[in-house]
Design goal:
The protein has 24 helices and 13 strands. With about 700 residues, it is an alpha+beta fold. Helix 9 runs parallel beside helix 11.
Length: about 700
Amino acid sequence: MTNIAAQIIKYKKSIVVIFMVLTIVSAIAQFFVPINYNMSDYIPEDSPSTKAIEVMEEEFDRTLPNAQVMIRNVSVQEALIYKEWLDEIDGVSNVTWLDDVLDIKIPLEMADASLIEEYYKENNALFSLSVREGDEVTITDAIYELIGEENALIGEAADTAVSQKMAFTETMYAALLLVPIIIIILVLSTTSWVEPLFFLTAIGVSILINLGTNIFIGEISFVTQSVAPVLQLAVSLDYAIFLLHSFAEYRKKTSNPEEAMQLAMKKSFPAIFASAATTFFGFMALTFMQFEIGADLGINLVKGILFSFISVMVFLPALTVLFYKWIDKTEHKPLFPTFKTVGNKVMKVRSISLILVFIIIFPSFLAQQETEFIYGIGEQPESSRLGTDITAIHEVFGKSTPIVLLVPRGDVARELMLEQDLKKVNRVTNVISYNQSVSAVIPPEYLDEAITEQFHSENYSQIILFTNADSEGDVAFEIVETVREIAAGYYGDEYYSLGESASLYDMRTVVLRDNTVVNTLTVIAIAVVLLFTFKSITIPVVLLLTIQAAVWINLSVPYFTDTPLVFVGYLVVSTVQLAATVDYGILFTEDYLENRKELPARQSIVKTLNEKTFSISISAAILSSVGFILWITSSNPIVSSIGLLLGRGALLAFVLVLFFLPALLYLLDKVIGVTTLKARFFREGASK
């Protein structure tokens, strides 16, 4: 490390120039990285709903409708005019209405009332249509311009358009709030007015390089776009703080800034490497998710940690040595009080801390497993245009969630029996097919292709059933299971089912499996890193128990408050909180082990608390601020839930590291001494 540090200092100007060029190129490149807002695209290709979508596109040359438009107070003829106008909008296709399922030349009074009310009710017309993926904002804006304020637009396309519109502005808003808060926290923790700018520059450079290199991936998810940069900032800022604090200490011992930096790099490298390694391998576990949005985020966070580590160990030393005089000229007295009395106070309540956590931990573990989850994007705020439109359509037409079945074409009798059974399913309000909407006795060859093409392809018949359930939840998923069981009874594995409910059902199946895999891999990866870092069998258990307890308590809150939790947020935070906040425990335990070589157990813990509480509180304050600001600023339910869980989780981890970890270390002190290689714990009366 000494030789590497010397080379970095020797070529400091070249290093700074290279990093600045890479940053500028990356900052430009990030604007050419496509953002994917469609959650369904991240379901594995071998899942039933994904296969069904492929068959639908091949056989019927169309996708499922992803939007609905309601036009108020129109006659049938006026509704048909609106249908033509909607169909003329560039990017809108497959506009479906009442005239596609029955002959409207026949008086409506003679037709099936339940069928009519799916499309036309109380002089309100409800159209289904497909909006081209990738252009949702432009197309939905054109639809809004056509229908005006008094009518309504809902659906996945509208959700995506809202997410696209808000993603950039909300990210900028979050940054405008976050950067000043972090600067304030860092100013309070340092003795120089400009030193925080060095921290932020080093991590800012790594964030921009990370964002720019996404161009080689092809595209990233909107979750990654919104969350990855701020998570990278929050979890890797500690690396810069470790290095520059060590540099400041060595500046007091040597008058040569270059020598001080080399010594600081050598001294801080193990702590920074251990911190980066636990976070790196923790995030790596996300890449093993079959639900690919986790893998997408995991790859970006892993890249981010790697770039942050390189930036702090290469770019920051070069930058600091070049401009250290700025730090000297802007020195100020410490602005924050020290924690010199916190150690004794914490140790006085150690028994209470242990008892309290052990009482809470078991019910929290059970409760977080029973939380009600949302697998889609979540509910839109009622105050928004989209939220208002959803309410308006539900008030008139009720909740209507379609499930589409594609069955092998040819056996009309079997289709009729299947359709009769589907009608009997609880919460199914209507079944639409060629047999139900036209007639089983009329050969399709005698009818216009425009009528038959929506029901029949070369190989498949399409059956659409409408339910009055939500698109997800226990009831919705039970309907999907029942429908699939009925279809399998008639066609075995030769049928396909698709629709939002079917996709979310498959998503749930995948992510529930992912949850076990990711959490297990995260714990194992971090345990292995801790094992090699501390050369101890006991310490990894102690640290993981401390942080995992904070994770379980955090994730149990939605259960006790009866609040549904977006599952993507749960899965990400259960990994991120563990990977990011274990650093607090590492920092504390490293210092405790050093102090323990010269002091008895209680005194070493008191000394560690007095010296490290401030550093840990700064890290926790930054990570918590990042989380709560994401929660406050984001209108996207997924990003917002990740923010809330992250903010609360960082605070809980800080509290447990401050109170529970010292109590646990004191309780297990003798065991730790025996199970830690070369512990060399101080023993009173022993000769040195």
